[in-house]
Amino acid sequence: MALNIKIEKTTAPKAKPDWSKLGFGKIFTDHMFIMDYTEGQGWHDARIVPYQKIALEPSAMVFHYAQEMFEGLKAYKTADGQVQLFRPQKNIERMNNTNKRMCIPQVDPDDVLQAIKAVVDVDRDWIPEAEGTSLYIRPFIIAVDPFLGVHVAKQYMFMIILSPVGSYYPDGINPVKIFVETEYVRAVKGGTGYAKVGGNYAASLIGQEKAEKLGYAQVLWLDGIEHKYIDEVGAMNVFFVIDGEIITPSLEDGNILPGVTRASCIELLRSWGYKVTERKVSVAELYDAHAAGKLNEGFGTGTAAVISPIGELNDDGNKIILNDGKIGPISQKLYDNLTGIQWGRVADPFGWVEKV
Ligand SMILES: *Cc1c(COP(=O)(O)O)cnc(C)c1O
């Protein structure tokens, strides 16, 4: 049965922003989706209301023990004015995997897809149209019981907020410098690395800050046990091309976030006949491959940037430059095809696109 969503439209629509100065995550649309959870009752009171502040008790559990989760996906406007999502079912499936790890109740995948489409539809005129721009969709769930005991909550709020975002690459794609982090770790086997939760981000800020102070854009996170194998780059999954073979860390240890962009890159690359291997990759292997002239290119993948080429790695002062600091051919091909499918410029042979 379809979710019954009550819609209360704003009587005071906000002025639209300067579309040429959107940036990321600073501007919010006119509406938001909310649904409550109460133990014994399940999810209830699905509604779309004007974007507004929410009232919570200072004792609300999320503030103290971080029982929460989030997702991130985008709505794209095509040249002929249609609105489409990219593999939203994958985000919703991941949402329930995160919920399971965080002891948050499961959500109905059909209800969530309906809610995403409904709120995007209400704020359809907030989807920017310029090249590379989109509407960022942020579903999230927080534990709201007013209780300081450390326990699984009984009450939650599920919200979806929307933010028009600018092009990630307004000046063209420039490969970034990456700092290999050997002191701090982001996630460890048995932990929450595969779950999309704020706690992982809180734990990563110190490394990101350290890298920025040293003039690096992002951190290359290493495994939490041996500090030897690569996990992720910033908040992106990571790929390297060694001697023509494409390698990305495997998901089996549970410390890596299973990115929708990561999965899509693997599927696209394999469909083009490339060899893609998911396995452990050490920093030493990358440096050895570089010394042998076989480290062809490297890139991060994620919804925000799609593809972010790696121009330089710095491991404890030992710096290497990848592909002369320029975007490599595989990174470029992935970027062109993924963004082509997302914005409806190229055919979608996989059925990845979902119309709103
Ligand atoms: C969201 C996220 C990614 C990228 O996932 P996509 O589904 O491709 O956007 C990668 N790593 C981390 C830590 C993330 O939170």
Radius of gyration: 21 Å
Number of helical regions: 7
Label the structural class. alpha+beta
Give the biggest beta sheet.
Answer: 9 strands, mixed
The helix fraction, in percent, is 10-25%
Number of strands: 18
Heteromolecules bound: pyridoxal-5'-phosphate
Instruction: State the end-to-end distance.
Output: 19 Å
Order of helical and strand elements: EEEHEEEHHEEEHEEEEHEHEEEHE
Contiguous runs where pLDDT drops below 50 for at least 5 residues: none
Could you please describe the fold and organization of this structure?
Strands 1, 2, 3, 4, 5, 6, 7, 8 and 18 form a nine-stranded mixed beta sheet that branches. Strands 9, 10, 11, 12, 13, 14, 15, 16 and 17 form a nine-stranded mixed beta sheet that branches. With 356 residues, the chain is an alpha+beta fold. The chain has seven helices and 18 strands. A hairpin with a 3-residue loop joins strand 2 (31-38) and strand 3 (42-50). The longest helix is centred in the middle third of the chain and has 16 residues, at 198-213. The radius of gyration is 21 Å and the shape is globular. The relative contact order is 0.14. The chain has helices at residues 61-65, 88-101, 109-122, 198-213, 260-271, 283-291, 329-342, and strands at 6-7, 31-38, 42-50, 68-70, 73-77, 83-86, 134-143, 155-165, 176-181, 218-222, 230-233, 237-242, 245-248, 276-278, 295-302, 306-315, 318-321, 353-355. It binds pyridoxal-5'-phosphate. Residues 72, 196, 232, 235-237, 257, 259-262, 301-303 line the site of pyridoxal-5'-phosphate. Pyridoxal-5'-phosphate is lined by residues 72, 196, 232, 235-237, 257, 259-262, 301-303.
